[in-house]
Amino acid sequence: MIALVDCNNFFCSCERVFNPTLEGRAVVVLSNNDGCVIARSNEAKALGIPMGEAAYKYRQLFKDKDVAVFSSNYRLYGDMSQRVMNILSGFTPDIEIYSVDEAFMNFGQFCNIDYREFALHIKKTVKQWTGMPVGIGVAPTKTLAKIASHLAKKNPQYSGVCVLSTQSEIIDALHSIKVEDVWGIGRRLSGMLHSFGIHTALDFSKSSESWVKQRMTINGVRTLKELNGEKCFNLETKQERKKSIVTSRTFGQYITDFTPLSEAVSNYASKCAYKLRKEKSCARELSVFVRTNPFRHDITQYQESKTIELPVATNSTIEIIKYANQALREIYKPGVLYNKAGVMVHNIVPDNQIQGDLFDTIDREKHNSLMKTLDGCNDSIGREKLRVLAQGFSRQWHLKNEHLSQCFSTSIKESIIVNCKK
DNA sequence: TCTGGGGTCCTAGGACCC
DNA sequence: TCTGGGGTCCTAGGACCC
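The joint structure predicted for all components is written out below.
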């Protein structure tokens, strides 16, 4: 059996843990730039606030209904996530951290246990130790565990835990789930399935393999088999090396000049380099992209990207910033109202398996030790305090986040620095 | 006025190899 | 009139996930 532990309304719950007055109140968390609604408490869902909608459309409703609005505070959420995952890892090392707020756990190794009792115990422990409410679904496959956790949240009588073990329990569950709510079936495929009269997970589970293969490729077949109790997705317990890393942002205001655009791109490049070093990886390719606001039909649209192959795989901030700017110069067009840019690194290799270059002019040892010092400083005194000059200080591109909560659980060192300065 | 960010996998088709 | 068989690699586009 496989369990899926899923934090309830994760970002909202993180805000609540440190601000109990929010209990019982509608809470929403907005995306970067306070753009879209990306998390809602149950009370906010009940008010009909949809997921992913533009926040400005709901300003009045927020005011009228006294909704607590937060900008996203990813430091806080990342730290809370780690705490929850640490606790789960204490129950079994056989765990896959699937996303910031979800983990699969292998229950197969436990003999003679009552799955429901065990899951309730996990749920209670997480709540007690971190304040985070979770729902748990237990079933023979990952896809069914997803369905079980969905049911655990929707039906109060389950008290947050739903176990699907017998055939009849599974059939009842499949009957109650819409096909578009099945893991792996998105908007396009569910639309197609509806047109064939397939509306519930149970309808879909009865489809023939060849029919599904033809219309939904091999992934559809895997989902089909999983719904019928056959494991196709294994637990990925060890973290694989990332195949690509992206840092991109929508700007708080439009940018036209090269210099601030270059500063923004340099900052994203620096972030990519930092992420690479944390993964002990280097990249052999880098892309930069820029674009205008696609929602503004009144302005000339422009969107371009440029990919550069690096002579030697690297994770040096200095080098990556240099190539990012080289790429940016090739796609920069004056007079354009840019509203987003990003840097992507790919063709990633382990940092100890790098193909050298006979004619390399860079002292890589020196870069490495400089980067170690850079990270050491920034990890202890606060992010990006020490930076490459190209990253600039004007921050014309900085994000709008007018409703940011404190970094309750991670800001101690930074506040010490501030106090020392005072 | 105001609409996020970061990933993965699969397939078809083209180019190329012997 | 008639033109094989088998394979790899790359890319763009589409689909999905959180």
